[in-house]
Amino acid sequence: MSGKVSVEDFGKTPEGRAVQRFVLRNNNNVCLKLISYGATIQAIEVPDKDGKAADVTLGFDTSDGYLGKHPYMGVMAGRVANRIAKGTFSLDGQEYKLACNNGPNHLHGGLKGFSHYVWDSSVEGDSVKFTYVSADGEEGYPGEVTAQVTYKLTNDNEVDIQYQATTTKATPINLTNHAYFNLAGNREPTIHDHVITIMADKYTPTDDDGLTTGEICPVDGTLWDLREGVRMGDRVNSVPGKAPGYDQNFCITQPGDNQLCARAHHPGSGRTMEVRTNQPGVQFYTANYLDGTLAGKGGAKYNQHSGFCLETQVYPDAINKPNFPNSVLRPGETYRHHTSYKFVLG
User: Fold this and answer.
1) Which of 9, 37, 190, 294 sits at 20 to 30 Å (Cα–Cα) from 231?
2) Is 337 a catalytic residue?
């Protein structure tokens, strides 16, 4: 026990490596649970307007759920989150080939990615730091990358996430957390009664495979205009795609060091979540491909639109889109990414 952080066993990998769980609590009955496998957010328990706490993230009760196949629930996605076109990119005159693990494209770092390893971990006061060293050539990427992510739960009910990375060779990098939220509680069937606001006046359209086209378009007059707050049940099934719903990068209107970029509100519970970041984009995903086959926490069946993700990031496929913000990290530089999820109660 260190401060308000406790540590407990959470199973082992098939190779026999121990997985640990870290439990952080604040003075307001908010609890954050993290596991070292994938530097994953395993649970966030938040009181409602009547003081009754519920877990507002989707996921699994045991390590077996995370070790098996699942849609990146709560994990740290990297070395490059989101998609890279055809699993290829050129950097400094050299072409690199990556695995295509999402149709014709590369997704969330490849066949394993950062999400499928046990990260080294340490408790530092009231924070937990996870570290992973990605070898030069891992998943086809150049350079040995040392990645760190530090989580802290504040008494302002803020889950604060600090990402940092260095590299020995030039490489693209785009880290994010892939938590699925349902502010009504993780066992509730849909997010249709959630009101979502995203502070973005532009978005990046995608093709039928979910890959950005390279365009940056205004949201005005489109289904992607969420600036005034939209009840998901009134909109989500109208968004076209292979499965209906949002899976889009939004271009934050005024990027900054700690910019409010999104807000989610659930009227029934009174819970509100505010997202702040220093990144230029945020991917809004409404769990379009969940189909009820996953057995989640407490026996929950996670169906389509039973959760949502707000993944702060550089625009997807930036390494192949010169008009997108830079995603290349070079030796001597430090990648720094800050995101926070703040829960407003009542």
Assistant:
1) 294
2) no
Give the ranges where the chain is alpha helix by DSSP (H).
63-67
Rounded (10°) CA dihedral 31, 36, 42, 44: 20
Instruction: Please give the Cα distance from 16 to 19 (Å, whole number).
Output: 9
Evaluated on CA atoms 333, 328, 252, 45, the torsion sign reads: negative
- Cα–Cα distance for residue pair 21/32, rounded to 1 Å: 10
Which pLDDT value is given to residue 39? Answer: 98
DSSP 51: S
Q: How many CA atoms lie within 13 A of 224 on its CB side?
A: 24
Average pLDDT along the chain: 97
pLDDT, tens only, 52-106: 999 999 999 999 999 999 999 999 999 999 999 999 999 999 999 999 999 999 9
How many Å apart are CA 257 and CA 298, to the nearest integer?
Answer: 38
15 given a catalytic annotation: no
Q: Could you say which of 70, 139, 311, 337 is catalytic?
A: 311
Confirm if 190 and 306 have CB atoms less than 8 A apart.
Answer: yes
Token pair belonging to 62: 């045991």
Q: According to the model, what pLDDT value does residue 3 have?
A: 45
Per annotation, catalytic residue among 108, 178, 194, 265? 178
Q: What are the pLDDT digits (tens) for 125-143?
A: 999 999 999 999 999 999 9
Q: Which residues pair with 31 in a beta bridge?
A: 25, 45
Question: How far is Cα 256 from Cα 272, in angstroms, rounded to an integer?
Answer: 22
**Residue 49 CB partners (closer than 8 Å, separation 6+):** 269, 270, 271, 345, 346
Is it the case that residue 2 has pLDDT exceeding 90? no
CA distances from 158 to 8, 242, 286, 343 (A): 23, 35, 22, 6
Asked if 105 and 212 touch (Cβ cutoff 8 Å), the reply is no
| Sign of torsion over alpha carbons 89, 86, 118, 307 | positive
H helices then E strands: how many in the chain?
A: 1, 27
Are 217 and 205 in contact by the 8 Å Cβ rule? The answer is yes
